[in-house]
Design goal:
The complex is a heterodimer. Chain A has strands at residues 4-6, 9-13, 18-23, 30-36, 43-49, 54-57, 60-65, 70-75, 84-91, 102-103, 107-112. In chain A, a hairpin with a 4-residue loop joins β7 and β8. Chain A contains no helices and eleven strands. In chain A, strands 2, 4, 5, 9, 10 and 11 form a six-stranded mixed β-sheet that branches. In chain A, strands 1-3-8-7-6 form a five-stranded antiparallel β-sheet, with no helix packed on it. Chain A is mainly beta. Chain A has a single domain (4-112), classed as Immunoglobulin-like, CATH 2.60.40. By secondary structure, chain B is mainly beta. Chain B has a single domain, classed as Immunoglobulin-like, CATH 2.60.40. Chain B is built from no helices and eleven strands. In chain B, the strands form two sheets. In chain B, strands 2, 4, 5, 6, 9, 10 and 11 form a seven-stranded mixed β-sheet that branches. In chain B, β5 (44-50) and β6 (53-56) form a beta hairpin. Chain B is globular, with a radius of gyration of 13 Å. The chains are: A mainly beta, B mainly beta. The interface between A and B is medium-sized, with 23 and 26 residues.
Chain lengths: 113, 114
């Protein structure tokens, strides 16, 4: 089943912060975050494994709460280059046969000057 | 180094025709994935190869869709008797070993079935 992301869309002014949430109805092993700009391929941001891990990439960080089957992506002091559609992808297990990455519904982020 | 490449970038075909979409992954990547993306949606998993074998083909919508990776590098997605509902962007991705690694996506093939 497809993870649900919220919000569906958000508009920010440059320098503002945003949080994007990803929720699954199934137990998760890992959550993967990608950003896709219009007309381009998705680009990897980070992977979070179960264990309540938190990761950061410059001003973009994320957390994973496996008990709640949720992950959140945090964008601080947003830049124009952050615009795009953000997708979470989820994996159910760590073994052969559970390697199907299921992408979420997407969150469109627009940063305005 | 070179990224994932896909050909053609655009394919327009008529309903009922057969099409082949090609993916050239990053050299040395053993895992290869095909996804389909419709406008405004996230990538939808179709099939995953580990080496030459299809490790998971549960996302293929029906038996009109088939994919091969005979030598463990280049892969071809084949669609028979195309239907208008097959129109979408078909994305290919590769990763070093498995889904637990970063996936590198190609630019996609936009398929339009008239």
């Amino acid at each position: 089943q497809q993870p649900v992301q919220s919000p569906q869309a958000v508009i920010l002014r440059e320098g503002e912060d945003a949080v994007i949430n990803c929720s699954s109805s199934k137990a998760l092993y890992s959550v993967h975050w990608y950003r896709q700009k219009h007309g381009e391929a998705p680009v990897f941001l980070m992977i979070l494994l179960k264990g309540g891990e938190q990761k950061g990439h410059e001003k973009i960080s994320a957390s994973f709460n496996e008990k709640k089957q949720q992950s959140s992506l945090y964008l601080t002091a947003s830049q124009l280059s952050y615009s795009g559609t953000y997708f979470c992808g989820t994996l159910k297990g760590a073994n052969f046969g559970n390697e199907k990455l299921t992408f979420g519904t997407g969150t469109r982020l627009t940063i305005i000057p | 180094g070179a990224g994932v490449s896909q050909t053609p970038s655009n394919k327009v075909t008529e309903k009922g025709k057969y099409v082949e979409l090609r993916c050239d992954p990053i050299s040395g990547h053993t895992a290869l994935y095909w996804y389909r993306q419709s406008l405004g949606q996230g990538p939808e998993f179709l099939i995953y190869f580990q080496g030459t074998g299809a490790a998971d083909d549960s996302g293929l919508p029906n038996d009109r869709f088939f994919a091969v990776r005979p030598e463990g590098s280049v892969s071809t997605l084949k669609i028979q008797r195309t239907e208008r509902g097959d129109s979408a962007v078909y994305l290919c991705a590769s990763s070093l070993k498995s889904s637990y690694n970063e996936q590198f996506f190609g630019p996609g093939t936009r398929l339009t079935v008239l």
